[in-house]
Structure formats: structure tokens, C-alpha cells
Amino acid sequence: MGRPGACGTRHRGRTARPRRRARRGRRGGARGRPARRPRHDLPRGLRRGRRRGVGCRSGCRRGRRARTAAPARRLVSAPVAWAEARALARSAAPPPRAERVPLASALGRVLADPLVTAIPLPHFASAAMDGWAVRGAGPWRLGEDAAVEGGGPGHAPVLAAGEAVEIVTGAPVPDGAEAVLRAEAGSVADGVLQSVGETGRHDVEGRRHIRPAGAEAAPGDRLLEAGAVLTPPRIALAAATGADALAVRRRVRVALVLTGDEVVEAGVPGPGQVRDSFRVAIPAVLRALGGDVVAVHRVGDDEDATRVALSAGGIDLVLTTGGTGRSSADHVRAALAAAGAALLVPGMAIRPGGPTLLARMPDRLVLGLPGNPLAALLGLVALGAPLLSAWTGVDASTRTVVAANTLPGRARSTGLVPATLAGAEATPVAHLGSGMLRGLAAADVVLVVPPAGVAAGEPVEALALPWTG
Ligand SMILES: Nc1nc2c(c(=O)[nH]1)N[C@H]1C(S)=C(S)[C@@H](COP(=O)(O)OP(=O)(O)OC[C@H]3O[C@@H](n4cnc5c(N)ncnc54)[C@H](O)[C@@H]3O)O[C@H]1N2
Ligand code: MOO
To answer: Which parts of the sequence are annotated with region: Disordered (predicted)?
Structure first.
């Protein structure tokens, strides 16, 4: 139940849970009947009137605040078509910014500048096998006096024709060396080295087992392009050039705002409660897209609390869940209006995930996801992925697969259909109610079904799921 205001009236927002229960009951078949309508739970138009001019007649704090609040702007407009909404999201991303990170923190980051080597790779000629560096056809004079001129710390000796020097894998070869004779292909007697058998002959005649300087790269070679994702071998390659840190695209700092009085974060939900689906899953999706959740706000069905959470400092992007609807228990749109946000995408012409929105505040963007779990995660993939991809450089491109079955279209909206893949053939999964998760949990891709539908055997666009790597 809501707490009474100072006036003793039970105010809208504080009485949201009973209304929620009634709503869940209607949608999901859970128990609950419409709760007694609280005094301030008026139809939206009347609520707006009260907010603007009347307030609570008893003069309690909530009423006074409502009287002085700026009039809410109306944030209702037509849903934006699939391609246009995604293009708007991409163009909303701020220009890329870079930061330097040590190699140890570079895994998965996106290179901001090309990797150019200043040194040859390898930067000296070295032995590829344990054995002897040799010059000439052999036999070879071996001994300490073979490793002579030019030798010394950091310098390889110089070999004369007919000379050999013992060498280990990775060691600099002496100048003049023409091959490395493997240990197992030579024998030494009385200070003279001979090659043994076919292997030895091949090693010497084939001038084998010397890795020349610069074989992999010359100074000034571009080894990786800007935009490359730093995998373990790419980090190792950077280390080989002598780099200790790399310039990478900055990640996006995200505040997650989870709305809903009925949402519980742990344990088995009680009657009318809903176990949170997003607290763990959404940060994981964002991580894959180049974002880090740096703050989590749990807010009830309350406009003021939602507005305050939208404005908390130190972040680049706010991601809200739930409350995107237009009922008396949904406050995201009104909170955005109260915070002075401009809606870039008020909703998308997609099913599910239609209420997904994108808004701009002076110092941040706001991605609003619907509360229904499948709708939210598909909204994140549909609108969040292109936004974050443009922002962080992480790849979110689509691919073309083949529809195994006919995929019916829907007038005026694009269908997002989770599917499994066998080769290039995609089959929709079961359990695709917008409040469900079982289908998405089994899916490999999300098919993008245009309003005209797709016939069996025809190509269809597919979105990668950020968590399938
Ligand atoms: N009259 C209309 N009603 C609805 C419409 C419509 O066009 N007209 N659209 C429907 C669609 S589509 C969607 S999607 C939802 C969007 O609703 P909200 O974004 O306002 O989400 P809520 O009402 O807050 O919650 C919906 C549903 O999701 C559950 N939820 C919320 N948060 C979580 C969470 N963290 N973890 C798991 N589940 C969560 C919540 O309990 C509700 O069951 O509106 C339709 N209605
Ligand atoms: O976004 Mo809603 O169905 O489309 O749940």
C-alpha cells in the first residue's frame, strides 16, 4: 500500500503496487483484481491538469511540488521504422574518444590508432633451433676461438668460412652464419663439427633455421588498423613491437535504472512480485558492446525518483528498464520530459520491443527499454547495439541467413524473431511471448522480419546476439 502524504491522502506513485498487481493479473493471469483507485490515480489527462494547476487541495508536500513543477511536455509520437530508428541511434553517438591503457587491461578493447611498429620484427636475426651456427659447407672448426670478432655483450660474433659456433634457439646468430645445423644432425670430434645424414645436409644446403631480422615486419609497417578489437595475439603482437600501453576507444559509462515497485532482486518472488531479469543480464550485454555499468539505481513507480536517477552524475548513458508505457504506473516518459530530455526515438515500429526509446539530455543519452524481459533484451539489441557500436567501435553488423520456414509479417512493424542456426538456415524458437526468456535463451540470432514477411528459403537479415561472441 502507498504511504499517506502529509494530507492523509494516498498519493499516486506511492500506491503503485496494488495497481501493478491488478495489471499483472490482467496481462499474465496472475491473481489480483483491480485495486481501489486511489484519489490521485486519475486518468492521464486529468492527472496532468492536477499537476499543472491544482495540486493536492490539502497542501501537502507532493501537491505543492506538483504545482511548482514545470509543465510536462507531451512525449507521444509515432514509432520510428526499423532502419530509420537504428540510423538515428548511430548518429546520436558522440564522437569517439580515446584513452591509453596498459597492455594488461587491453583485452577486448578497440584500438583507437593503428599499431605501427618502430622496430623490425624480429629485430635481430636469431636461431630457430638448438645446434650450431655454421658458415660454409663443412666440416667446421668449432671452438671458443670460432666465436670471435665482433662478439661481446649484446653482439653476436662474426663467423668466418669453415667455422661454427654452438647456439640455442632464439639467440642472435653471428654475422656471416648461413645456417643452423640442428643438434641432432651434427657430431663433434676433436673440435671439428660434421653434419650427419640427410637432415644435416638439408639444414646446411637449405640455409635453414635462421630467422632473419625484419621477416615479419619492417619498421613503419602498420600491423593493426584502428578499430581492431584487441585479442590475445594482437596484444602479444603489440608487446613484440615494444609497446607497454595502447590508445583505445573509451568505453561508455552507463547508469542502469531499474523501475518497478513489483520487482525483487533476490529469491523466489511472492504473489504479484516479479524477479528481476535485468540486473545481471543487461550489464553483461553492455560489456560486450563496449559499455560498463558504473551505477545501478532501483526506483519504484515514481516520477520524481525516476527523474533524479536519470540525472545522477558521472555517466555517459542512462539505461532504464520498465515504465515506458503510458499508464499511471509508468513514469519514464514523464521523468524524461521533466528532466528536459529531447526524444530522438520515441518508440520503434518493432514487435516485441516497440516502446524502446532513445532520448538526449544535455550531458548524456537515455535508452529506455520496456519492462517485459524479451522486449527489453530485443530493444537493447535493436537500438542499443547500433548506438554503442557507433560510440565504442564494437562490431554490431548484421548478416544474411536463410529462413527455414515462412515468417509472416506484421502490418506497420518489423518482427524480431529469435532463431537457431544450422549452417545458414534459421529456424524460429518457441516461447517468444514478450514477457518470456526461454526462447531467447535458446537462440543464436534474431531474425529481422519486414512487414511483408519472408517466404521459406528466402534470405533474411539476422542480428548477432552480443553474448554469442
Ligand atoms: N494499453 C497498452 N498497454 C501496453 C502497451 C500498449 O501499447 N498499450 N504496450 C505493451 C508493450 S508492447 C509493452 S513492452 C509494455 C511496456 O511496458 P513498460 O515498459 O511500461 O513496462 P512495465 O509496465 O513497467 O513492465 C512490463 C512488464 O515487465 C515486468 N518487468 C518490469 N521490470 C522488470 C524486471 N526488472 N525484471 C523482470 N520483469 C520486469 C513487469 O513486472 C511487467 O510484467 O507495455 C504493454 N502494455
Ligand atoms: O515490446 Mo512489447 O510486446 O512488444 O512486450
So the answer is: 1-71
